Amino acid sequence: MDQKDIPDLFRPVRLGRYQVANRIVMAPLTRSRSGSDGVPRSSLMATYYRQRASAGLVIAEGTNISPQGRGYAFTPGIYSQAQIDGWLPVTEAVHAIGGRIFVQLWHVGRVSHPSLQPGGVLPVAPSAIRPDVNAFTEQGFQPCVTPRSLESGEISGVIEQYRHATRCALAAGFDGVEIHAANGYLIEQFLRDSTNQRTDCYGGPRENRVRLLLEVTEAVVKECGGDRVGVRLSPVTPANDIGPDSDPMATYGQAVEQLNAFALAYIHVIEGATQGPRDIVKFDFQALRRAFKGVYIANNGYDRAMALAARRSNHADLIAFGRLFIANPDLVERLRIGAKLNVPDRETFFGGGPEGYIDYPFLSPVERAALVAV
């Protein structure tokens, strides 16, 4: 097939400082296959990410920026030398076949449990409001507790956690980082007035509530340059019991406008409820795209037809796929030729070993040839 006949979803594109192979992004997926110390299980995880590295960009799973940022058992970290050493074989495996990989910088805030915190202390948040969700601990699911509200003087330390994690990510061979400001975790807890009841310079009017996001982004960009940084947003998701913002269009619109100052590689937007309905609340996602002077990655429930249509209408620059990548390591090829997709086994999503992680089948040469010949 002539290159001009291939839909541009499958053609190279510029993303920040990199030329990537296509417009398909592997979204971050929590799989809980690290050690209890946050050290990646290098061989297993290197195989998993290498299998999926045909995506234009792989965004590695949410990765704890500090012991305080941890909210799920067996998730990886990116703040210690042992963790850096554990991630190096993973990034090397992706690079060996020409892929690009960012890591998602994750602080869960209140979505945690004392058993996951150093010394069994309370999780932290902008305000002491308990989320009505369960935390995945090493003893199983346990109800989240009422968090402790961060003191004003502590917030600079949280920003430093992001900066340090960025430096560790570069040492581990990642091509860049994504700041997780979505899905009801710490930064989004500051963004929304439903979870931020502070009266200091980080609370109240939206120009204060966006402050943490902007200060974190500034610190991260100073470490690695804006063209190696993305930000993930979810303006209307109810994930992790985060209540709606009173005016999400204004709040997230202001956040995106001000993020332009950092010349970021991209914003990564969850359109609708995370892993749920896209139309849960009326929201003009295209207004965010128009406001942002960089690459817009769209996420949430996309399939092949939707992705191709999104590119034909210029709805988004790149399309992120999450759960489809779990069972389809060769998802890019399957989407390109319209192949049938493997069905994921939900029982093996979190924790465990290779089963349901690196043993999903690729298309056979016979299957591929039959489809290409049609």
Give the structure's gist in a few sentences.
The protein is 31% helix and 16% strand. It is globular, with a radius of gyration of 20 Å.
CATH superfamily: Aldolase class I
Most strands sheet: 8 strands, parallel, barrel
Distance between the termini: 13 Å
Q: So, CATH architecture?
A: Alpha-Beta Barrel
Q: How much helix, percentage-wise, in residues?
A: 25-40%
Q: How many H/I helices? A: 12
Round the mean pLDDT to the nearest integer and report it. 96
- Global geometry: globular
How many strands in all?
A: 14
Which class do the helix and strand fractions yield?
A: alpha/beta
**In sequence order, what are the helices and strands, one letter per element?**
EEEHEHEEEEEHEHHHEHEHEHEHHH
Strand order of the largest sheet: 3-4-5-10-11-12-13-14
For the record, the count of structural domains works out to 1
CATH structural fold name: TIM Barrel
> What are the segments in which pLDDT stays under 50 over at least 5 consecutive residues?
none
Q: Output the CATH class name.
A: Alpha Beta
Strand content range: 15-25%
Give the secondary structure arrangement, pairings included.
Blueprint: E1 13-15, E2 18-20, E3 24-26, H1 42-51, E4 57-64, H2 81-96, E5 101-106, E6 124-125, E7 134-137, E8 140-143, E9 148-149, H3 155-171, E10 176-181, H4 186-191, H5 206-209, H6 211-224, E11 229-233, H7 248-259, E12 266-270, H8 285-291, E13 295-299, H9 304-312, E14 318-321, H10 323-327, H11 331-337, H12 365-373
Parallel strand pairs: 3-4, 3-14, 4-5, 5-10, 6-9, 10-11, 11-12, 12-13, 13-14
Antiparallel strand pairs: 1-2, 7-8
Helix pairs in contact: 1-2, 3-6
